[in-house]
């Protein structure tokens, strides 16, 4: 552009004043003709360039070169224009009045609500989900230093040559309040198996030998497979014919009772009396907390129910003292002792939501608070299963011979069972089995936590009772050893004298009926044990512990009565009065 065209723009026009006047030549304002001017030099240069292009473009090589140059220029221009439009759009959006107001408001709000220096208006992607936390397990505990139970040792047995049989010994319990406070919040670890389910079979077929409609007829292959411990297992465990234990399975229970049993979520104390074989004995020294929170269940058959109603002990409330009475219908076995093994070994199926259970035989009276027992034999030992060892016998083969001598079961069946276990590798007990201290339990008391590994143990133990004889003391060791060979799970086998500290053994009802009424009352209704005296006189009560011995010293008069009643050995048909 030359200098002659500068300065001719007006505020409302994009052209020169000269061009407007030329176009509006009819206007009266125009008085002089336009002055012709020479074309500018730049126009001549552009015209020469255009003629040059037209001259050489028809040539092939030059034409292709020019075409490529033009295409590249057009492509770059499109990119430049597009990028400018996007930037302009973002700029307009960012600085629009409503956007600026919104950002300003959010910025002020973030300053008011967030003092960590981050703007709440900043859009951040949601944080990645956290990995699942590892499961929490109870790992035991140690008593604080100075606690009398920490260094407690058993005193030597009293030198009483006149009394050589089993007797209770002192046990160091924590006070009830401390025992309750130490109840674990998390379950114990279950080694080897974490998911345990149970076989349901409506159509059953008998295989090999043993079994029943209630427990099923597992083959020997299935039996061997059940000892192959793995994370998820599906095993026979009674109640095979129904989808819900106690409902049309054999060992049937009323629905109202089943609902109550399913609602028990803490500790359950259970016992059973079938065939009116025993008398109901009330727990003693039970704390008010345990009375409100522990489930006390007594399973009876219809015969025992009729006896209790005739003796005016049972009314419509279906309660006798602390015990809730549950009547069992359609018993699966003809033998009352075998029927008793169902609640004894399968409490985890009858109480699916309970965490801990304490089983005591119907002939026993509980004289220590359940929480103190759980703390002493499970939690303090970091164990999930506890049972006392037999006071005298610790070898399965010796136990089998004692059962045969006492006519506890058919001798041929006992021999068949023992021979079968010998072929599977069962050997007589010796010191080589240490730290296992015994192969024979005193099975009238079982203390356990309901976790998969302990549930598996009692399922397999019940299967042995169902397949072979009901003498569970014979089958205990083979099941325990098979599981321990695959896992690091152990059983706390405590002393029999410690068991006799928290339960008192009474007579069966038929034995009581043969005794004179006054003496029967003395035997069945035991006087308060020394545990009361220890609570008042023990120097450890104000600190943290209590040492109790329910029957520490027998009065002289009562000792003469017991001496005069030795005829009960003949009645029981066994030289050992404590053999059961």
UniProtKB/TrEMBL annotation:
Domain TOD1/MUCI70 glycosyltransferase-like: residue ranges: 196-508
Q: Basic residues bias located where?
A: 555-570
Q: Does the keyword Transmembrane apply?
A: yes
Q: Which controlled-vocabulary keywords does the entry list?
A: Membrane, Transmembrane, Transmembrane helix
Question: Where are the annotated segments for Disordered?
Answer: 555-580
Could you list the residue ranges that cross the membrane?
A: 62-82
* Origin: domain of life: Eukaryota
- Report if keyword Transmembrane helix is assigned: yes
According to UniProt, the name of this protein is: TOD1/MUCI70 glycosyltransferase-like domain-containing protein
């Amino acid at each position: 552009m030359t200098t002659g065209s500068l300065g001719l723009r007006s505020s409302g026009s994009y052209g020169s004043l000269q061009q407007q006047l030329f176009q509006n030549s009819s206007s009266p304002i125009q008085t002089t003709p336009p002055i012709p001017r020479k074309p500018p030099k730049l126009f001549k240069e552009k015209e020469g360039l255009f003629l040059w292009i037209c001259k050489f473009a028809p040539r092939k090589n030059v034409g292709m070169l020019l075409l490529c140059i033009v295409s590249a220029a057009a492509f770059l221009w499109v990119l430049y224009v597009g990028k400018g439009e996007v930037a302009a759009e973002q700029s307009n959006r960012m600085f629009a009045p409503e956007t600026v107001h919104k950002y300003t408001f959010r910025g002020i709000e973030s300053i008011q609500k967030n003092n960590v220096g981050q703007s709440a208006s900043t859009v951040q992607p949601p944080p990645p989900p956290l990995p699942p936390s590892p499961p929490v397990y109870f790992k035991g505990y140690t008593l604080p230093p100075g606690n009398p139970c920490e260094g407690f040792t058993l005193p030597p047995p009293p030198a009483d040559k006149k009394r050589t049989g089993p007797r209770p010994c002192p046990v160091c319990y924590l006070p009830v309040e401390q025992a309750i406070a130490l109840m674990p919040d998390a379950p114990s670890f279950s080694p080897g198996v974490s998911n345990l389910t149970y076989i349901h079979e409506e159509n059953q077929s008998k295989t090999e030998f043993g079994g029943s409609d209630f427990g099923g007829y597992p083959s020997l292959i299935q039996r061997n497979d059940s000892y192959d411990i793995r994370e998820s297992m599906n095993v026979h465990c009674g109640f095979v014919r129904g989808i819900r234990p106690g409902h049309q399975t054999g060992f049937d229970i009323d629905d109202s009772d089943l609902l109550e049993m399913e609602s028990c979520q803490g500790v359950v104390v259970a016992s059973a009396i079938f065939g009116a074989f025993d008398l109901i004995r009330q727990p003693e020294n039970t704390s008010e907390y345990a009375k409100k929170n522990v489930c006390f269940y007594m399973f009876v058959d219809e015969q025992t129910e009729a006896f209790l109603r005739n003796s005016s002990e049972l009314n419509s409330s279906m309660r006798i003292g602390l015990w809730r009475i549950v009547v069992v219908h359609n018993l699966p076995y003809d033998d009352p002792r075998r029927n008793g093994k169902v609640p004894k070994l399968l409490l985890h199926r009858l109480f699916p939501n309970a965490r801990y259970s304490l089983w005591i035989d119907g002939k026993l009276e509980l004289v220590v608070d359940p929480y103190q027992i759980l703390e002493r034999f499970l939690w303090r030992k970091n164990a999930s299963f506890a049972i006392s060892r037999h006071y005298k016998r610790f070898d399965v083969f010796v136990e089998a011979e004692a059962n045969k001598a006492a006519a506890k079961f058919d001798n041929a069946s006992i021999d068949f069972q023992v021979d079968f276990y010998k072929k599977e590798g069962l050997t007589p007990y010796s010191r080589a089995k240490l730290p296992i201290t015994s192969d024979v339990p005193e099975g009238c008391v079982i203390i356990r936590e309901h976790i998969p590994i302990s549930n598996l143990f009692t399922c397999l133990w019940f299967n042995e009772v169902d397949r072979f004889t009901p003498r569970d003391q014979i089958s205990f060791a083979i099941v325990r050893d098979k599981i321990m060979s695959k896992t690091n799970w152990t059983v706390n086998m405590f002393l029999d004298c410690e068991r006799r500290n928290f339960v008192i053994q009474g007579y069966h009802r038929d034995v009581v009926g043969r005794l004179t009424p006054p003496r029967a009352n003395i035997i069945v209704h035991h006087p308060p044990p020394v545990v009361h005296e220890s609570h008042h006189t023990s120097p450890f009560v104000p600190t943290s512990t209590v040492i109790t011995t329910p029957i520490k010293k027998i009065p002289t008069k009562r000792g003469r009565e017991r001496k005069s009643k030795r005829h009960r050995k003949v009645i029981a048909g066994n030289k050992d009065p404590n053999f059961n």
